[in-house]
Amino acid sequence: MVFAPLSANISCHSISDQLKTRFSSGLSLPQICENFVKAAYDPRISGIYLHIEPLRCGWGKVDEIRRHIVDFKKSGKFVVGYMPVCGEKEYYLACACGELYAPPSAYVALFGLTVQQTFLRGVLEKVGVEPEIQRIGKYKSAGDQLARKSMSNEVREMLATLLDNIYGNWLDIISSTHGKKREEIEEFINSGVYQVSRLKEQGWITDLLYDDEVMTMLKERVGQKDKKSLCMVDYSKYSRVSKRTLGLQGGGEQIAIIRASGSITRTRSPLSAPSSGIIAEQLIEKIRTVRESEKYKAVILRIDSPGGDALASDLMWREIRLLANSKPVVASMSDVAASGGYYMAMAAPVIVAEKLTLTGSIGVVTGKFCLQKLYQKIDFNKEILSKGRYAELNAADQRPLRPDEAELFEKSAQNAYALFRDKAAMSRSMSVDQMETVAQGRVWSGQDAFSRGLVDSVGGLSQALAIAKQKANIPKDKKVQLVEVSKPSPTLPEILSGIGGSLLGVDRAVKGVLQDMSSLSGVQARMDGILFENLGDMSGENQLFLLIKNIVNHFD
Q1: How far apart are CA 556 and CA 553, in angstroms?
Q2: Of 8, 351, 362, 445, whose Cβ has the fewest other Cβ atoms within 10 Å?
Q3: What would the pLDDT profile of 477-518 be if each residue is shown by its tens digit?
Q4: How far apart are alpha carbons 104 and 78 in whole angstroms?
Q5: pLDDT for the residue 20
Q6: Which residues form the Peptidase S49 domain (predicted)?
Q7: Is 479 labeled as catalytic in the residue annotation?
Q8: Which of 38, 61, 89, 140 is catalytic?
Q9: Cα separation of 473 and 205, whole Å?
Q10: Which entry of 46, 263, 305, 339 is annotated as an active-site residue?
């Protein structure tokens, strides 16, 4: 039997760090990794046929999957990769396979990596919208998209460093895989690689074959030559195979895994999808349940979040600290744990990050829009009656802030930043001055964060588990039972949205626009969502851009 854990429609979905129900769309990182582990021990499985389509996830998740491919090969079973579309991220994952094939017509674009940032200030001015943004931290890029017309020197420095980290790591891994010098790999990429035949000539892929030809080859390899079709089980079906049936469930001591993925909000809004983002009130309830239970000997807090509401982040920080007082807690970072995501992680005594996890971003941003000129253009009038000197601070969008209001607005943001920075310093056992040198809203790669004391170890979930066992005084070789506290159950809205998505196309984007725009007020501990790629839904600023675009079209 051959197992294909990643279905060919991966390009249609992002890879989530959360567990999925059978009715959920998209792929689940924990289920992908679990399938690799099960397949290694399952005597019915001869090998893995891995279809790799364009990957919609960050480098942290790619490293986690790549690690599981390497570990699976130690079982002696084969891993055959098939890659019809080849970019840097896809090849980074695919080259871990024992054999790699591509169709003769494969799309190839190995040109290097880029980072880009877009700016809406000019567009906003055109329609009469004046953003009034307070971002604290010279590297804090969140808010720049609205407030600036070009990249600041500080943000340019930060992004260039991150790009160097990612590209340098890519060159190191590829050169190591092929046994070549880094300079040779870079020279090949700089020649502009768009022909799949060149990959075969250079030994980057095994051969050029269509999918059916690879399947015929595999039939012969596993002794199914005379059968009409290859006996396979796909990712979705194999995800329903219990680890218990393979003797992999573990026993004895229990370690809880609490997963926190997406943007952070304090409470669920009427527009929230059943599993949208990190809702603080719900996560706090789970944390308290784990804290009060004596059956869990340690906790792994798995974080994949660019941040969000600062108050919500602080409330969760408090609960995680209380949890850490009762049992060992290890934070494990996925693609991103920045700003509010890092706020949560720093409450844990031990933090583990992937080498390319985007983390840090210790800073805050808040803002409002002055719509005075827009209102004049469309002949709209708004009048406010108020009592109290600053009563109109957040209500008056028909005029700019008065000087005293602007001063208070800035002081409020500075206060929020100081609270974040000082708690980060206390949590990481640094002085405030030491923390200030690595804060200022700067985003670090996991490797750089490790060298600066923001994280304690570089690795994935298995590394976090090893540390959790050590802290809980559980012998290294003793099996434990991992309990997914955040394990979802299918809800009627989720089932209906899954069916509706197949028939009509999802209405998730529309809901996202309304939901994110409704959360623009208040202090945000958020990392800009435009670094390298969007790691989740469109950020509020990008969704606002769609609205502004419609307004511009109207006036044109």
Answers
A1: 5
A2: 8
A3: 898 999 999 766 555 444 444 444 433 333 443 344 334 444
A4: 23
A5: 77
A6: 72-223, 323-474
A7: no
A8: 140
A9: 45
A10: 339
